[in-house]
Every structure is written in structure tokens, then in C-alpha cells.
């Protein structure tokens, strides 16, 4: 049975997905790609048309808007966030969304990629979706349900609250953020711009997910300067930075403590890139762990490996810089679980069992929480993100919309703050 939300969510997802809003980590601008503003401007127009207040584009290109509290309700101010960009990892231009209405349980094929199959054998969750309406791309692009499913959910819930003043809820602040996929969506300005007591991102996968643990993350940059000399005269003089780079890699653990050998709550050191020449090499690493002690130990290990390799060749210069990326939001949320408790109650009220796993990654909420606005992550139904097999069920988006509405009413039931 299709609900009114289903029709609206499907329409929104299809309309938003065709807009190319891919971010680009190599670009220094804000937002990283101007095409993201095509999404932002559309959302601003739609928000104004549905009667949202204070619709603005912030200095950081975040679309902000207010759903005023219902008459007489004095509740904490809650933020709802989704991101307008799609992942740089796969082609995102020319997205052609395909709606598979009343999914029959078989393999899904793709018009533009005859060899590609989305199969319930390979992705068992799909086999639970028989009869639902599945949206995919056409085979040559990602779909962008990450996070346009989240955008569609927030917009649909906002429209519903604005049209139904009889639903008692507190003030809700909306934020549609650029550049989440390249880790630049949340700036230090966002807590003040959002002006919420706490917030939720709608940027998760499985129905029921309420996530309040992310990785803690640092980045490592290793620079190696060798001694560059014409190879014809190089005897006893040339120091090849490439060999030293290889030594650093081979000295680091690689049958353990890598992304491909860890899961669950284990952290890792991931060698992301190695570029350069015999004269100079630059290596980029990401360091991840759920606990600070584990993260610090990984930084110390990378430094120690660099020092050890440096000792084998005193004529080379090896530097290792480790910088802060984001922190596990649990460190803050465990001090006051109210935002998580409201979310798990909202999920139960929508007929699902809440699931709180630890995210092997970060969300906009990781940084927003660290900057002072606690912000767990809620599902919006996206599956197989960042590739051509991405899909979302309209009915899962409808479940997330119900959760958003339950959040709104759940907050209004809290004791009023003074
Ligand atoms: Zn996302």
C-alpha cells in the first residue's frame, strides 16, 4: 500500500537525484563545486514555497531554515541535517533514476550497463523488499541517495509539519550542508548558524539505525626527501626517496591494522596515496580508531616507523605530520544521552527496533558534536552507496520520515527548558 509520503518521497528523490551535485576534494573553494548550489537554490525555493521561515544561505553555503514551534510549545530547538553533495568516488553526472515499482524479488538489471546486476543473493536486504518501490540509477552513475534520500526525508517531514499546525512540536532548524563527502560540510560556524540544542543527521542506511558512535580520525602526511643526482654519476651519492617510501610501507603492519583486515570496533592505518619521484615522495595516510588511546597509538606507530626508516639512511630527510580530522561523537553524547533516547523512542514508535552500531567512518554529526551541538545519525534508507548498485526503497524513506515526525513530537513532550 502506497502512502501519501511514498508519492512525495519518490518524486523528491527522483527530482533531486538528476541534479549533479558531486563534491571535489581537490577543489579549495566553498562549496567545492558550484554545481552543489543548484541543489541548494532549489531547496531554498521549495522551502520558501512551503512556508518555512528564515530561509538563508550561510557564509559556508549551508541552506538554513526554520519550522517555527507550534503555538504554546516551549521545547528544546532541534536541528535536522542532510547533505546536498554526492560522492566523488563514482560518476555522478547524467543520473537517470529508475523506479522499480512493486519489486518482484528477482535480479534488477540496468538499461545502460547490460552486464550489471543488483541481486538479492548478493545483497540479502533486497530480498526483504518484495512489493516495495525500489529506486536505482541506470547503470553508469551512482544514484545519490546518499544523501538525497536524507534531503527528501527532511523536506517531506518539514512540509508535513508546516501544513499540519495541529501537530505539537518545538522549533526545528533545517540545515542542508555541502561537501560532506569530502569532510568539509561542518565548519566552526555551524553550531551558531544552526542555533539548535541538539540535532540529527539523516545520513544512515538501515531502517532503525540510530548511530551515535563514529570513528575518531587523524590524517598522516609523510614526506621523504632523498638525494637527487644524475644516475650516471650516482654511485654512493644518490638516495632514492621511492625506495625509502616503499620501506615505510613495508615496515608498517599490512597483514593487520589495515582497512582490508579489520572490522567491527578495530581501528586501522590506511595508506591512501604515494606520489613522487626518486628525489621526493609524499605519502598520505588516514588513521582510525574508536578510542583515543588506540588512535594515538596508531599515530605513534607511524612516527616510529618513519624514524626507524630514517635511521637506515641519514642523508635522507623524512617528516611525519599527524593532523586532527574528527572525533567519536560518543565522547560527548554519553554525557547526556537525551538526543539518542528521543531518537530510539521515535524509531520504536514508528514500529522498528532501534539499532545503534558504531560507524566505521564519520558523519557531519561527528564534527558538529565536537563543535558543541550533539548530533546522532538516523537512517534514511540508502543502500550500496557511492557506486552503480546504489538503491533505496521508497517505503524505507517513508519510515525515516515517520521517525523524523516522531522526533518532532517526542521533543515537544520533554519538560520545557526555562
Ligand atoms: Zn552521506
Write a structural description.
GO terms for molecular function: metallopeptidase activity; tripeptide aminopeptidase activity; zinc ion binding. The chain is of the alpha+beta class and 418 residues long. It folds into 2 domains: 6-214 and 328-412, 3-Layer(aba) Sandwich (Aminopeptidase), CATH 3.40.630; 217-325, Alpha-Beta Plaits. The protein has helices spanning 4-17, 36-49, 145-163, 190-194, 241-251, 292-311, 330-333, 338-349, 364-370, 394-412, and strands at 53-57, 63-67, 78-83, 98-100, 108-109, 117-118, 134-136, 172-177, 198-204, 210-211, 213-214, 216-225, 268-276, 280-289, 317-326, 358-359, 377-379, 391-393. The chain has a 7-stranded mixed sheet, covered by helices on one side. It has a 4-stranded antiparallel sheet with strand order 13-14-12-15. The protein has a 3-stranded antiparallel sheet with strand order 4-7-18. The chain binds zinc ion. Zinc ion binds at residues 83, 146-147, 180, 203.
Key features of this structure:
418 residues; 18 strands; Alpha-Beta Plaits; binds zinc ion; seven-stranded mixed beta sheet; alpha+beta; four-stranded antiparallel beta sheet; 2 domains; Aminopeptidase
Provide a concise account of the structure shown.
GO terms for molecular function: metallopeptidase activity; tripeptide aminopeptidase activity; zinc ion binding. This protein has 418 residues and is of the alpha+beta class.
Amino acid at each position: 500500500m502506497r502512502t501519501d509520503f511514498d508519492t512525495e518521497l519518490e518524486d523528491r528523490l527522483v527530482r533531486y537525484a538528476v541534479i549533479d551535485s558531486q563534491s571535489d576534494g581537490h577543489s579549495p573553494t566553498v562549496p567545492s563545486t558550484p554545481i552543489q548550489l543548484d541543489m541548494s537554490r532549489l531547496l531554498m525555493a521549495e522551502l520558501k514555497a512551503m512556508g518555512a521561515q528564515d530561509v538563508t544561505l550561510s557564509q559556508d553555503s549551508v541552506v538554513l531554515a526554520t519550522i517555527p514551534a507550534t503555538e504554546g510549545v516551549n521545547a528544546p530547538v532541534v536541528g535536522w541535517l542532510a547533505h546536498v553533495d554526492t560522492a566523488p568516488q563514482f560518476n555522478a553526472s547524467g543520473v537517470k533514476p529508475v523506479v522499480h515499482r512493486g519489486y518482484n524479488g528477482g535480479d534488477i538489471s540496468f538499461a545502460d550497463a547490460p552486464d550489471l546486476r543488483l541481486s538479492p543473493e548478493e545483497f540479502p536486504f533486497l530480498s526483504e523488499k518484495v512489493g516495495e518501490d525500489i529506486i536505482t540509477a541506470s547503470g553508469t552513475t551512482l544514484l545519490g541517495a546518499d544523501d538525497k534520500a536524507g534531503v527528501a526525508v527532511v523536506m517531506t517531514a518539514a512540509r508535513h509539519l508546516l501544513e499540519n499546525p495541529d501537530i505539537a512540536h518545538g522549533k526545528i532548524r533545517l540545515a542542508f550542508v555541502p561537501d560532506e563527502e569530502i569532510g568539509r560540510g561542518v565548519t566552526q560556524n555551524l553550531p551558531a548558524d544552526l542555533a539548535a540544542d541538539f540535532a540529527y543527521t539523516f545520513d544512515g542506511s538501515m531502517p532503525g539505525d540510530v548511530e551515535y558512535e563514529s570513528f575518531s580520525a587523524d590524517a598522516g602526511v609523510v614526506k621523504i626527501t632523498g638525494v637527487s643526482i644524475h644516475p650516471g654519476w650516482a654511485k654512493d651519492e644518490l638516495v632514492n626517496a621511492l625506495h625509502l617510501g616503499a620501506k615505510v610501507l613495508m615496515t608498517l603492519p599490512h597483514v593487520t591494522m589495515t582497512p582490508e583486515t579489520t572490522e567491527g570496533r578495530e581501528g586501522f592505518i590506511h595508506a591512501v596515496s604515494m606520489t613522487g619521484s626518486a628525489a621526493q615522495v609524499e605519502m598520505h595516510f588516514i588513521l582510525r580508531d574508536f578510542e583515543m588511546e588506540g588512535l594515538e597509538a596508531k599515530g605513534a606507530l607511524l612516527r616510529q616507523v618513519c624514524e626507524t626508516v630514517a635511521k637506515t639512511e641519514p642523508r635522507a630527510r623524512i617528516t611525519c605530520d599527524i593532523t586532527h580530522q574528527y572525533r567519536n561523537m560518543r565522547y560527548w553524547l554519553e554525557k547526556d544521552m537525551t538526543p539518542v533516547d528521543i531518537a530510539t523512542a521515535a524509531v520504536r514508535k514508528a514500529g522498528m527496533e532501534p539499532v545503534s552500531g558504531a560507524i566505521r567512518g564519520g558523519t557531519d554529526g561527528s564534527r558538529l558534536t565536537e563543535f558543541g551541538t550533539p548530533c546522532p545519525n538516523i537512517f534514511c534508507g540508502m543502500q550500496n552507496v557511492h557506486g552503480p548498485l546504489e538503491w533505496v526503497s521508497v517505503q524505507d524513506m517513508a519510515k525515516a520520515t515517520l521517525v523524523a515526525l516522531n522526533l518532532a513530537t517526542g521533543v515537544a513532550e520533554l519538560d520545557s527548558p526555562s
